[in-house]
Amino acid sequence: MVGGGPGGLTFAHVLHRHGYPVTVLERDPSRDARPPGGTLDLQEKMGQVALDKAGLLPWFQALSRPEGQAMRILDTDGAVLRDWRPRPGERANPEIDRGQLRELLLGSLEVQWGREVTRVEPGGGDGTVVHFADGPPQRFDLVVGADGAWSRTRPAVSPARPHYTGVTTVETSLDDIDTAHPGLAELVGEGSLGVYGVNRSLVAQRNSGGHVKVYARFRAPLDWHAHLDLADPEAVRSSLLAMFDGWADSVLGLLRHGTAFAHRPLHVLPVSHTWTHVAGVTLLGDAAHLMPPLGAGANLAMLEGAELAEAIATSTSTSTSSGTGAAGLAELDATVRAFEETMWARAAKWAQITSAGLERLVSPDPAEAVAVFDEVQPS
Ligand SMILES: Cc1cc2nc3c(=O)[nH]c(=O)nc-3n(C[C@H](O)[C@H](O)[C@H](O)COP(=O)(O)OP(=O)(O)OC[C@H]3O[C@@H](n4cnc5c(N)ncnc54)[C@H](O)[C@@H]3O)c2cc1C
What we know:
Bound molecules: flavin-adenine dinucleotide
Oligomer: single chain
Shape: globular
């Protein structure tokens, strides 16, 4: 397994649960080497199914925040257009902090930290060779690339590279919002706040512990920051405030009080990305189907990880006579082929939905964004 994100860790957790050996190769030098990122909503029919297969659903239910499903939409003058709250007991899409999810999935797994994969070389019947930035290559029966958007495993099966969508996100955050900025805390509420203007939006999402992530999203050429020092927070803040000039002062407080700023141009793989099957190597998650970040990517990655692990465990336990010899490897290969077909069909559907969604959420007509919300969340 290359990559210890939601997809890779779910795969490893489920395989480990079934008693099978799995090696997780992760580039990060340690489990807390970088901030884990914002909150994730895990859907009842995808991420939560995966957690059930991993035996972790009760822990997720204890940690997740159903109230985080709340969604408020404002216009750029600050007027409330929609204010949706989940019904008591509603658990279709509860939120969980990425850090909490990662801790759950890590459990007692052994991860090889600081193992940056540089290249994966399918080797026919002799196993697949993994090359590292540091240390000698290693050979495996199956390499599963769950190494995200800029996967180093992907070139072993496909020449596809992510392309820029024309939409960029700049992310910032506010700490201890309830005490430090009670007015903004009230504005954001228990879940998410979305404000949509012409070709730009501001979205704020509450994480646990009074932490709020803010995403400024806008259409711009990839080099829009050519004359801006992205490492200078004050310069980035001023540039964003100029870009969102004229929006309600209450809303702009989210940018004014943001601490650090991270630049994230949105890239995607082609919708319906598939490849000619290669024995001994496959992909899942963003490595296979990077799409706009609209609530599906982690869910898909986790479901795929859980399904592939379960399919491998089932096929190898029903063909114990095959062992790990040629017949066993052929069985493994057939299982991976079937998994790929299922993954491709489902991911293509979501890639279409999220690509169309991004077009409408960052569009010349802000009413489109409200229409998207009404389709997803009819009251
Ligand atoms: C702002 C934002 C909000 C989002 N919200 C949601 C949401 O609410 N719900 C949802 O379903 N999805 C959401 N997504 C999408 C989701 O984050 C991704 O789709 C998901 O993280 C993909 O999981 P993954 O395991 O495939 O890859 P990743 O999470 O990218 O993990 C890849 C792992 O591989 C490691 N790695 C990379 N390269 C190498 C290498 N060469 N060698 C070894 N290791 C390597 C990385 O360090 C990382 O740990 C959001 C995304 C963004 C940006």
